Amino acid sequence: MAKKKMHLTGFVLYAPAPHTMMSWIYPREKIRWHWHQNEYWRSIAQTLERGKFDMLFFADGWGGGNEASVRYAVQFPVHDPLLLISYLAGFTQKLGFAVTMSTTFYAPFMLARKLSTLDHITNGRIGWNIVTSFSNGEARNFSLDKMIPHDERYDRADEFMEVCYRLWDSWEPDALKMDMENGVFADPAKVHRINFRGKWFNCQGPLDVIPSPQGRPLLIQAGASERGREFAAQHAECVFGAGGRWFTDDLAQRALKHGRDPSKIKIIWGAQPIVAETAAEAQAIEQSVLDRIPPQVGLHLMSSHFDMDLTRYSLDTLVNDIEGGAIQGIVESFKRAEPVTLREAAQIYGRGMMPHLVGTPVQVADQMEEMLDHMGGDGFQVSPPYYAPDYYEDLVRLLIPELQRRGVFRKEYRGDTLRDYAFEE
Amino acid sequence: MAKKKMHLTGFVLYAPAPHTMMSWIYPREKIRWHWHQNEYWRSIAQTLERGKFDMLFFADGWGGGNEASVRYAVQFPVHDPLLLISYLAGFTQKLGFAVTMSTTFYAPFMLARKLSTLDHITNGRIGWNIVTSFSNGEARNFSLDKMIPHDERYDRADEFMEVCYRLWDSWEPDALKMDMENGVFADPAKVHRINFRGKWFNCQGPLDVIPSPQGRPLLIQAGASERGREFAAQHAECVFGAGGRWFTDDLAQRALKHGRDPSKIKIIWGAQPIVAETAAEAQAIEQSVLDRIPPQVGLHLMSSHFDMDLTRYSLDTLVNDIEGGAIQGIVESFKRAEPVTLREAAQIYGRGMMPHLVGTPVQVADQMEEMLDHMGGDGFQVSPPYYAPDYYEDLVRLLIPELQRRGVFRKEYRGDTLRDYAFEE
Q: Of the N and C termini of chain B, which has fewer Cβ atoms inside 10 Å?
């Protein structure tokens, strides 16, 4: 029997350093292009396509800009990824793309229109990572004094999705005629006003984009909270998982409750494989990644995530001893029995909070298969711990052939759309 | 003395038929690609670049979808042009692009970020056509019951511009360091919060995009109303003119009042040159364009512009006899002394409200030079009256060499940015 195929995405930010802090630093003579140059991204996208990755996945944010984030490029600046994706569509044929867009900062008509347009330009290769945003820093760029409360954001997002679904369905599949002989562009009986009136949004419709190759983007979600998992169980086709087996089981239960087949919700886990010809070489690469990250950089990232100034504590402080409820959750998220110091927490934040899988191709492929056996789910979000053009080339040269040899990763794309790839077994 | 150079833009919508109704109809055997396919736009952009046009200019709208607009494709559907522009950036080296974005439907942070990102991706070739939007149909897609009143929209747009300027200036030019040796990405003393608090918008900043090649997009505006001209005199570097000499003079006066040099505001006029080897051939092409447009299509476009149902009147009705103040303005805009029937008004609306300049290359070049002598201003927005890939090829094959021969149009691009081209004399 053929083995179940793993799904892999390249997980990035259109930024100097995606999720591993200070990864914009690299030996200068090996830098071919910088992160803000088109060629950098063309190289990454073409490498991922050569490696048959499902997609290049862009996280996004709309805030930042305090002293530390400017000095160290802590998830700042972040350029607009939608525009980069349509640029990259011209230099790839098969690779999928996913983009993070916020239901709090976009209007539903604007968002649905942009994603349908992107589905046309990419010819069916677009996915939407649905986020509600969370930081007060982001809110303050959008005329809000602070972020809308968590559960209200999700209620609002539910209504947002309803508007989008109706817009995407506002053209019946055979509405478009382009009948030049009779001068009929489309059949007005098959293109519908939606006349949506909700608690947060009104929208008249129809969508001003003709039906796109996928009809609607692949829907992706990443919320780890209870309300977030409930949202995912209702809407998502692909989920960025957090935690482990309990998450897989919980999501399956929730999907069933909503009358959905759990196998139709793919789960991918964040990971940073670091692969080299020898284990020693791989370990040396990992060490160089870690050596680039001063503890204060992780501390600044934590400060911004928790909206509190953690730099006023000594690095030896136990996180349990820090005032304020939010930060206590860190201990649990690290799955550590023993007390965690701020230094350790900052290091884990600084390196990106994803497990490093370090070793030879055989060792890393073993770890990846074991993780999926253990946690369930379908694959990995692969985030670059060092200079991304080189990083993905290393993976495609060393790791992908080993996964393909084992029959756990595709050798060719099957189908034409991102949705086809995402549901390939 | 070298003659003053004319400026030319390709003026389109990412839609089946830009400004000439029914121009999506064409002999089927001559259609190479359709308007929703990437290749159609690549062809247009590459043709305009070969012809040394200043830019490809996308109008935009966020509404439509009534029965007539669906049936005849009356400025509907309209896909999102920002995404198309970044795609096209990959297939052009010099051509500029302009995109219409609404201060009513975008948040300033979102808009400033997208345009700065596009300025990076195009390497300094982006312009922004600033609009405030006007139709209730558009408002109803964005949770508004009707459009914000005209003058309030412009007051709001003034504040919107102020936020954008501050965001674009929030990074000092030498703030970016990317100093890998000392681990300093940017100098926090040179990247500033803007902490803007206005009547309509608050924004914390800084912008999350590093300084772009042009610093800010070329600013373009098209409002013909008194308040619109006042806005243009304050903000615009390039204006889509309306009317004639009085407009040129009025704008110059207003510019002086705001302490600006009138020569730093370029004026371009809408026009549709229809050029062929012989005058008879050009006239036959024009007739085929007009024959494709049933009067009711123009009537529907007028109905939607004036937000009233004009289809209930006979085509022989004089527009002066129609109730409601708005439509009276049509007579004036056509500069006709004699009474205008609804049929005539509908025909002029249907063909796109721009003058047809019909004839041989010599005849049309003469007309263009005369128009600029007569009205002042700097060039033309050239809108395709028929299948756009063929139309622009015809112009570049026939008209451009004649203009170049006369020394009134560039033979090569000078400079690298859209702003360089726009201000080339």
A: N
**3-state SS of chain B: helix, strand, coil percent to 5?**
45, 15, 40
Contacts with A202 from chain B: Cβ below 8 Å: 140, 143-145
| Per-residue pLDDT tens digits for B275-334 | 999 999 999 999 999 999 998 899 988 888 787 888 889 999 988 888 765 566 665 555
Provide the 8-state DSSP code for A5: P
Chain A within 8 Å of B202 (Cβ-Cβ)?
yes
Whether the CB of A211 is below 8 Å from some CB of chain B: the reply is: no
The ipTM estimated for the assembled molecules is 0.96
Distances (CA, A) of A139 to A102, A108, A305, B41, B195: 11, 18, 13, 37, 13
Is the dihedral angle over the CA atoms B366, B367, B373, B374 positive or is it negative?
A: positive
Separation of alpha carbons B88 and A342, rounded Å? 48
- Which has more pLDDT, A203 or A65? A203
The 3 state secondary structure assigned to A286-333 is HHHHHHCCCHHHHHHHHHHHHCCCHHHCCCCCEHHHCCCCHHHHHHHH
Contact across the interface for B185 and A24, Cβ inside 8 Å: yes
Alpha helices in B266-360 (DSSP H): 279-291, 295-306, 328-334, 342-351
**Which CATH fold would you assign to the domain B7-282+353-422?**
TIM Barrel (3.20.20)
Q: Tell me whether residues B83 and A86 touch, CB distance under 8 A.
A: yes
Q: Where are the alpha helices (DSSP H) in A149-219?
A: 150-168
From the list A25, A72, A141, the residue facing B203 with the nearest CB is A141
Secondary structure (3-state) at A233: helix
CA-based nearest distance A44→chain B, Å: 16
Q: What are phi and psi of A286, to 5 degrees?
A: -60, -45
By the CB < 8 Å criterion, does A93 face chain B?
no
Run of H or E residues at A269: strand A266-275
Give the per-residue pLDDT at A304.
81
A129 has which bridge partners? A100, A220
Closest-CA distance of chain B to residue A63, Å:
7
- For chain A, helix, strand, coil in percent to 5 are 45, 15, 40
Per-residue tokens: A89: 């569509």
* Cα-based distances in Å from A394 to A51, A399, B253: 11, 8, 63
Q: Which two tokens stand for residue A30?
A: 């090996």
User: Alpha-carbon distance A319 to A279, whole Å?
Assistant: 33
Strands A238-241 and A266-275, by their bridges, are parallel
pTM of the model: 0.96
Neighbouring CB atoms inside 10 A of B290's CB total 14
Phi, psi angle pair for B142, to nearest 5°: -125, 40
CA A104-A110-A111 angle, 5° bins: 60
Whole-angstrom distance, CA of residue A164 vs CA of residue A178: 25
In A89-204, at which residue ranges do the beta strands (DSSP E only) sit?
96-102, 126-131, 176-179, 184-186, 196-197, 202-203
Which element (helix H / strand E) includes B394?
Answer: helix B388-394
C-alpha–C-alpha distance, residues B239 and A95, integer Å:
41
Average pLDDT, chain A: 94
d(CA B18, CA B73): 9
What are the phi and psi torsion angles at B130 (to 5°)? -80, 120
Compute the Cα dihedral for B36, B37, B40, B44 and give only its sign. positive
What is the phi/psi pair of residue B29, to 5°? -70, -15
